[in-house]
Amino acid sequence: MRNYILIVLAAALLAGCPAQPPKGDDASTKKDATTTTSTTDGTDDKGAVQTGKLDGADRTNSTALTGGDQPYRKDAIHDANSPLSQQVIYFDFNASAIKSEYRDLITWHGRYLASNQDMKIRLEGHTDERGTREYNVALGDRRALSVKRMLMFQGATKKQIEVISYGEEKPVGLEHTEAAWAKNRRVQLVYGAM
Amino acid sequence: MKQILSALSFFLLVCSWPAQAVLDVEITQGTEDALPIAIVPFNWSGAPVAAGAATQPDMKWAEVISSDLLRSGRFAPVAENDLLSRPQSAENLDFKTWRVGGIDHLVIGSVSAAGVNQYTVQFQLFDVLKGEQLLGYSFTTSSLRRTAHHISDLIYQQLTGQKGAFNTKVAYVTVSRELGTASYKLEVSDADGYNPVTILTSTQPIMSPSWSPDGSQLAYVSFENKRAQIFTQILATEQRTPLSTFKGLNGAPVWSPDGKQLAMTLSKDGNPDIYVLNLQDKALTRITRHWGIDTEPAWMPDSKTLVFTSNRSGKPQLYKFTQAGQRPQRLTFEGEYNASAEISKDGLKMAFVYKDKSGFKIASMDLETGIMDVLTDGPLDESPSFAPNGSMILYAEGQRGALAAVSFDGRFKQRLVARDGEVREPSWSPFSK
Prior knowledge:
Number of strands of chain B: 31
Radius of gyration of chain A: 16 Å
Strand order of the largest sheet of chain A: 1-4-2-3
CATH superfamily of the largest domain in chain B: TolB, C-terminal domain
Largest interface: A-B, 26 and 38 residues
CATH class of chain A: Alpha Beta
Number of domains of chain B: 2
Distance between the termini of chain A: 17 Å
Number of strands of chain A: 4
Structural class of chain B: mainly beta
Distance between the termini of chain B: 37 Å
Structural class of chain A: alpha+beta
Oligomer: heterodimer
Shape of chain B: globular
Number of domains of chain A: 1
Low-confidence stretches of chain A: 1-61
Helix content of chain A: 25-40%
CATH class of the largest domain in chain B: Mainly Beta
Number of helices of chain B: 4
Number of helices of chain A: 5
Largest sheet of chain A: 4 strands, mixed
CATH superfamily of chain A: OmpA-like domain
Strand content of chain A: 5-15%
């Protein structure tokens, strides 16, 4: 276990080094991260990988997490200065693909979970009020699963992640406006202890 | 048009009297060819004959019957204040006066005590033009509104040839929000919004109520255990049973017309797919296998064929599944969002949610010809539910948090406004047994 933490810390330190090329820019980097953190898991259900954008070219935009010497320390998720304190991912209408601007954030959360195996996370999928209710429950589920796959790609394990979809039933914005809808199309990352 | 206006002003009167209705009705689009009918206030005939006998009830028969007929969109009842006279028996009817007043049909009736909480109700329906009686009934009853709705059913059937659906119920979900916390209720009321009964209250969402074909139970989705699970509840006994609590989604429960199966959406095998649970042996059959979203099953009258929403083409569209091994047949091609189908009892019509540039609307499709009609204006209409006689489609107006109804041909519209909070997901009961 101690070795494991050291590896992760080393990885984290490397990740924090500005001289390094951006992390997560190719598949081999990801694979390394996965193998250091998990032996029991790392396989998601078959056919789970989204086509298109998830493995697209814009992943090269992925950058390292900043936040001092230990960017993935346990309390980072409560640190307003850490990007890990950002725990909502937003989506386009009727889409469950992760938008490029959220790839880094989800990558960091995945590495955080890989580094803190005693933490668990509940992914709450939501939609805006447009469209039918049960379809939206399914859509919220797909959104949460998109986030789950990316977290697991970074070494988070299946047993750390719980997925639930509320569809359009729990809006943040109650107005019938594009602004409210944009806020409601989301996956909330809710951390808890194992 | 004048008739519609007078019907409307009449209706405002109805709505103003104090009663336990949870929903007020507003007619938003009338029809020109509604049948003019006069319902004369029923006379209370006779003081209690013995100690303990029923006394005059606080019940406005003519108003209940008139509002039923008005809500059907097929009738233009005359406002009580505009009645030419108030005949109480067939003997002193002057058909000519009513004929001149443009009234085609006339209803008179009377109520008397028949014992403890028991009443005798009589009514007669006359054809004014022919000057003859079309219906005449006498009932002994203790449930007055029920009997009034039954009278409406008889009149409706006599004059339209179609079975009336006034003596039915509606299930719906209400949400009220206070200081950031929401309270969800599953309620069942009479079809006119009266006698609402809360059958479940929760701090977590309640969704997708569906009636058993005998009207004795509801299946619904509750998030009370912090995830979507399907429960059934017997209305008379409040007995609840968790029916589907698999990992992942448990949603969109719908009873088959034969009452033996429940179709639903489960994601336990990775993706939201349609499954059918045999309620007798509890065998679960997977109906769809697709990586996309398959949900919102609806039964055809044969209790074998299912219509469902799928995004297998990239966007949500409606498909029909006939039997295992056969590819589901796509039913909708117009527009980029067609979902949440409900099939009329005769299997001839399908109501669903359709999206165009100005929003989400209720549409119907003739299943034989494939011809589609957009019935409502949106922008956030959803959850269509047929009246058991197929005459009206009840739905939710998301923009207002209100329920509304539209005739199957789109010509007549009404809105049912909740007294407080938001109402949604209406589900019209089957005919009462």
